[in-house]
Design brief:
Helix content is about 5%, strand content about 35%. The chain contains 6 helices and 32 strands. The strands form 3 sheets. The chain has a 19-stranded parallel sheet that branches. α2 links the parallel β2 and β3.
């Protein structure tokens, strides 16, 4: 009964949605967590400092320097601020950022730009706990952001809204008041080789899209309210080969009428390492507080595939399919024949605001071949709050596990053949989580929450010399069949 989504502050609702198949080529394993590297501070690693304006609409005018005709806009050598370079660049060109601390909130409205740091750890955008978004892409298509760090933004580190084609590569986000990397109402995306730390809501979020046509791969998300959140997203949306740990909760897709394109559906979660998501001192919104102690939690989601993940050490459930109780909904529940309605069509449907709350239950999810250990309440769980879970068509097979709720869940709901047994035995009684929330660790202000040292991170290869690479060929294909269950880290 947990969910997460946009706070509604920036929601341009007009994406272009197309359909693609992204399930056929190799990907990479998730990297080792780098938060334990030697401690450094932004000031120490960025001796050259460029001061921008909190109001990014009034960046100083800059005359193009000799060499701009090569399509590369150097900051600060040629342009004093990132915003000035972004405003001067044309589609298909490259904004190259030299080491330094840039106190800016950059808005991007030009299609097919590549924005890249020379060095991931020493090109730092710093919101100083006052600016809203590190880089915000407002309806521009094909924008790629690479090889840099954002810290101390009140909303998001990177934010795409209403874009077709987006990519975040070799990005670090640290201490943000909302999300680390955020794609809303956007399609055809790739989030890769990145690390998100200390977000109040989720480290990574993809929401309000169907089909999303997006891939999250080779990322680490830690010390956030939620590792991943995705409200009303899905449809060729892959979360693969990544690590989610020490958040309040790990991977949490959900449905809810407070954003469009409901329900959440058809997210593929394969080959992830999900562990120790019991962190009680992270920043967190209310839904992260309610969801804490769960590894992979589907809250009112439809038709998701959860396969070959390793999930360990959660005080509630390892993998749970639960309801989401929505108070003051904006529309009634979609009927089953509307579950495959594209986002663009669903946005134009008439609404019918119900008199009371809505209960979004989880249907048609497939949970197979996962390794789930050390869960406090159940390694595998299926629950409702009054609904008949035996009719929800979820299935569980081939998982390594100990405890389930209800008891013998793989016998009750196998993925092949007819199930048998007592559905009432060992019920999770998930509604009690609401009452128990008061006894769990509460909110920690995101500005003050203790976080691991920023550490060192892998750089994009050949960052200074590689040509621009706008997000016009994303998402990359993924060979799902080649993915295996990852190992737990030593210790």
């Amino acid at each position: 009964m947990a969910s997460c989504g946009s706070d509604g502050e920036s929601t341009d609702e007009s994406p272009a949605v197309t359909e693609a198949d992204t399930t056929d080529a190799p990907t990479t394993d998730a990297p080792a967590d780098t938060t334990e590297a030697p401690a450094t501070t932004v000031a120490e690693t960025t001796p050259d400092t460029t001061e921008g304006s909190a109001d990014t609409t009034s960046a100083p005018e800059t005359t193009a320097a000799a060499g701009d005709d090569d399509g590369v806009y150097w900051v600060p050598t040629e342009y004093e601020t990132i915003q000035a370079a972004v405003d001067a660049a044309q589609p298909g060109e490259l904004v190259m950022i030299e080491p330094g601390t840039y106190v800016e909130a950059v808005d991007v409205a030009t299609d097919e730009l590549t924005i890249r740091g020379v060095d991931r750890d020493t090109v730092v955008l710093d919101g100083q706990l006052q600016l809203d978004n590190g880089i915000r892409v407002l309806g521009a298509d094909g924008v790629a952001v690479e090889n840099l760090t954002t810290v101390n933004y009140t909303n998001n580190g990177l934010f795409w809204v209403s874009s077709e084609g987006y990519r975040a590569s070799y990005i670090t986000t640290y201490r943000t008041g909302d999300y680390g990397i955020y794609a809303f109402d956007s399609v055809k995306g790739q989030i890769e080789h990145s690390h998100t730390i200390g977000s109040r809501d989720a480290g990574i979020y993809i929401g309000q899209c169907y089909p999303c046509d997006a891939v999250i791969t080779d990322v680490i998300s830690s010390n956030n309210g939620l590792g991943y959140s995705g409200t009303n997203s899905g449809g060729n949306l892959l979360i693969v080969n990544s690590t989610w740990h020490n958040n309040r909760a790990g991977i949490v897709p959900n449905s809810g009428s407070y954003e469009l394109c409901y329900p959440e559906r058809e997210t593929t979660i394969v080959g992830n390492l999900v562990y120790d998501n019991n962190q009680g001192d992270t920043p967190a919104i209310d839904t992260a507080l309610l969801a804490q102690g769960n590894g992979i939690l589907i809250a009112g989601g439809i038709g998701n595939v959860i396969e070959r993940n390793r999930v360990d050490d959660h005080f509630r459930t390892g993998i749970g399919l639960v309801p989401y109780l929505e108070e003051t909904p904006n529309d009634d529940l979609p009927t089953e024949d509307e579950w495959d309605m594209p986002c663009e069509q669903q946005k134009n449907e008439p609404i019918n605001i119900p008199d009371g709350d809505l209960l979004w239950d989880s249907y048609d999810n497939v949970v197979v071949d996962n390794v789930v250990t050390n869960s406090g309440e159940a390694d595998l769980a299926l629950a409702s709050a009054g609904g008949d879970i035996s009719t929800f068509r979820n299935c569980f097979s081939g998982n390594e596990h100990t405890l389930t709720a209800p008891t013998d869940l793989e016998t009750l709901a196998p993925c092949d053949g007819e199930g048998s047994g007592d559905w009432a035995a060992g019920d999770l009684a998930v509604a009690r989580w609401l009452a128990e929330q008061a006894d769990l660790p509460g909110e920690v202000p995101w500005q003050e929450a203790p976080l691991p040292e920023l550490g060192e991170h892998e750089n994009m290869p050949d960052a200074e010399t590689a040509p621009p690479a706008p997000a016009t060929d994303v998402p990359f294909t993924v060979d799902l069949d080649a993915i295996t269950v990852p190992d737990l880290p030593n210790g």
